[in-house]
């Protein structure tokens, strides 16, 4: 329901006259976002163009349902997760990889923004919802 912001900030819209999160929570979310962005920058360099191009082809295939596209993204994230350092939480790596892949897909084919964003949100909600909630509440 919020607008997509690339700088980590909320869209600035109010709900019933109040922001959706308390200011302290927004600070925590900004810190978490900065940490994830730093990890994402490291992963960004390691993801091969072939992997991104294969995913782009899946996203461009209009015959595939949202569920099928989400399954493809999940498979790619799982495969990439195997090559990350073992000292990092697997869920954190999966979250960052999903976001980095989305960025790379959209940078490759900007017209896929809506489909890639929605797929990533679905993937995170299905696979990593509890992790995100725990991370924000910790």
UniProtKB/TrEMBL annotation:
InterPro entries given in the database record: Bcl-2-like_sf, BID
Localisation: Cytoplasm; Mitochondrion outer membrane
Signal sequence interval, chain numbering: none
Keyword set, alphabetical order: Apoptosis, Cytoplasm, Membrane, Mitochondrion, Mitochondrion outer membrane
A Pfam entry, by short name: BID
Any one GO cellular component localisation term in the record: cytosol
GO BP terms: apoptotic mitochondrial changes; positive regulation of extrinsic apoptotic signaling pathway; positive regulation of intrinsic apoptotic signaling pathway; positive regulation of release of cytochrome c from mitochondria
Keyword Cytoplasm listed: yes
Source taxon at top rank: Eukaryota
PANTHER family per record: BH3-INTERACTING DOMAIN DEATH AGONIST (PTHR35447:SF1)
Protein name: BH3-interacting domain death agonist
Organism: Orthonyx spaldingii
Gene behind the chain: Bid
């Amino acid at each position: 329901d919020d607008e997509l912001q690339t700088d980590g900030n909320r869209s600035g819209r109010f709900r019933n006259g109040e922001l959706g999160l308390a200011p302290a929570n927004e600070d925590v979310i900004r810190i978490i976002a900065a940490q994830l962005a730093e990890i994402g920058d490291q992963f960004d360099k390691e993801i091969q163009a072939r992997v991104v191009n294969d995913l782009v082809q899946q996203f461009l295939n209009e015959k595939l349902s949202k569920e099928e596209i989400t399954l493809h993204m999940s498979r790619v994230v799982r495969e990439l997760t195997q090559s990350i350092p073992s000292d990092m939480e697997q869920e954190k790596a999966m979250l960052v990889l999903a976001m980095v892949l989305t960025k790379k897909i959209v940078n490759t084919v900007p017209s896929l923004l809506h489909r890639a964003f929605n797929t990533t949100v679905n993937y995170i909600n299905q696979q990593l919802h509890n992790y995100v909630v725990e991370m924000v509440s910790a």
